[in-house]
């Protein structure tokens, strides 16, 4: 009970951040543009897959746009959340508030990730209505857990990236370079097993690689090896926790530096 009480203020702060972002997104819903990209990506991937008569990789073609949608939504927003706040005049007030800015960022990113997760449903609808391919999930429970932990890991990673972008002098270059390399290392476009062996260790430190394997396995019914499923879920959660902790620490560091140097409006 004492642990719950200790966590309640943080949970309440995150909830208020979610509400703030929901209000901002209603006024400026450009974060939802990712939902226009997912159907086109699904159409392209499915067309290539079916033209090549590879019915065995239809699941890959349907799941990949959902994972890409999550990553694009979080990466895009993480790269401009502080910039937008500074332009709108919100940033000084957020820094001056007696609450951790990192938790505010995490709550706002969570709202964007929730919107981006709708790309999974869009991909399924495009496959079913546009191509007559109804993707059935052999293990719905595992699939739901995989989506949930993937969203958590995306939030943690985006919180870290938001802080990295702020302290970086090449924000736009860094942001633009974190797209396709992560699609490859994350096993989104092709399974990690199909990559060269020397890339596998690098892939396994990217949470998307575990998430992609979990989602594909749940669709095909290949996750009956419970120890592996538990390992994959723990790996995603561990990477999520590490990213979130690093993001909160780095955010606190740059906020303290800006307060100390008086550069809140200029950094």
Query: In terms of per-residue confidence, which ranges show pLDDT below 50 for 5 or more consecutive residues?
Result: none
Derived structural class:
mainly alpha
End-to-end separation in angstroms reads: 41 Å
Oligomer: single chain
Instruction: Work out the strand percent.
Output: under 5%
Q: What is the alpha-carbon Rg in Å?
A: 19 Å
What can be said about the biggest beta sheet? none
How helical, in percent, are the residues?
Answer: over 70%
Find the count of extended strands (DSSP E, 2+ residues).
0
Number of helical elements: 12
- Output mean pLDDT: 84
Order of helices and strands: HHHHHHHHHHHH
In one word, what is the shape?
A: globular
Please provide a written account of the structure.
The protein is mostly helical. It has 12 helices and no strands. The chain has helices spanning 2-27, 34-51, 58-88, 91-96, 101-116, 118-131, 140-167, 171-176, 180-185, 200-203, 207-220, 226-261. Helix 2 (34-51) packs across helix 6 (118-131), helix 3 (58-88) packs antiparallel against helix 11 (207-220) and helix 7 packs parallel to helix 12. It is globular. It starts with a helix and ends in a 6-residue tail after the last helix. The model has no long low-confidence stretch (mean pLDDT 84).
